[in-house]
Design a protein that fits this description.
Elements: E1 2-3, E2 6-7, E3 11-16, H1 23-37, E4 42-45, H2 52-62, H3 71-95, E5 99-103, H4 106-116, H5 121-132, E6 139-144, H6 147-157, H7 167-186, E7 191-195, H8 200-214
Parallel strand pairs: 3-5, 3-6, 4-5, 6-7
Antiparallel strand pairs: 1-2
Helix pairs in contact: 1-8, 2-3, 3-4, 3-5, 4-5, 4-7
The structure holds thymidine-5'-diphosphate.
């Protein structure tokens, strides 16, 4: 795999899924196990990943005062933040032969901005091809679960907050889930779907099985 002047020797895995899918729990349990079976140094990262410029861009996106933010502006800013994180953090790690595990990457933009914000998955994919020089993960694990269970999990995590979900957020969650499923159809050779409605241990076991069977140079 070649990207500009970088010769890639590392391995790049991304973990994707809607909120409440258990991405973070899986990652925390998975990474020490991966480190045990791989000779490579494992780097876990999530955008903006402590990269100064990416952090600044992310602040603009997530500022609740920015209610007027246009969907395309949002997609461009996510792509810009991604680019900076890629150049400063992911590429050097891959060039050094590390195993990089990313908590969200391009597919999140395809599902959230492309499908839920209705910019179109192909349009957002094109934007991200430009932003990443088309550097896509070697393997993506997509955690999929029904929207009701996802929302229930989010609510359980926020004990003192709202315990009522309005229709708008339910509809958005549906669009995000279906967005990810459309992305899976678009890239069936790269993405593997995991049913996320199972105990963490089983999830980790399945994720490890997929990783070891798909990637032979761990
Ligand atoms: P993040 O901070 O990664 O939270 P989590 O992974 O715990 O859900 O993401 C913040 C929000 O931003 C989340 O709702 C997903 C969304 N998001 C996008 O809309 N597009 C993107 O490209 C990414 C990376 C995230």
């Amino acid at each position: 795999m070649r990207l500009g002047e970088w010769t890639m020797q590392g391995i790049f895995i991304s973990i994707e899924g809607p909120e409440g899918s258990g991405k973070t729990t899986l990652l925390n349990a998975l990474v020490p196990k991966l480190q045990r079976i791989s000779d490579r140094e494992v780097l876990t990262t999530r955008e903006p990943g402590g990269v100064r410029i990416a952090e600044e861009i992310r602040k603009i996106i997530l500022d609740p005062a920015h209610t007027e933010m246009d969907a395309k502006t949002e997609a461009l800013l996510f792509a810009a933040s991604r680019r900076q994180h890629l150049v400063e953090k992911v590429l050097p790690a891959l060039a050094a032969g590390k195993l990089v595990v990313a908590d969200r990457y391009v597919d999140s933009s395809l599902a959230y901005q492309g499908n839920a914000r209705k910019l179109g998955i192909d349009a957002v994919a094109q934007l991200n091809e430009f932003a990443t020089d088309n550097l896509m993960p070697d393997l993506t694990l997509l955690l999929d679960l029904d929207v009701e269970t996802g929302i229930e999990r989010i609510m359980r995590g926020r004990k003192n907050e709202i315990n009522r979900i309005d229709l708008e957020s339910l509809a958005t969650h549906q669009l995000v889930r279906h967005g990810f499923l459309k992305v899976l159809e678009k890239y069936p050779e790269r993405i593997v779907k995991i049913d996320a409605v199972k105990p963490t241990e089983k999830l980790v076991e399945e994720a490890l099985e997929i990783i070891t069977s798909r990637l032979d140079n761990l």
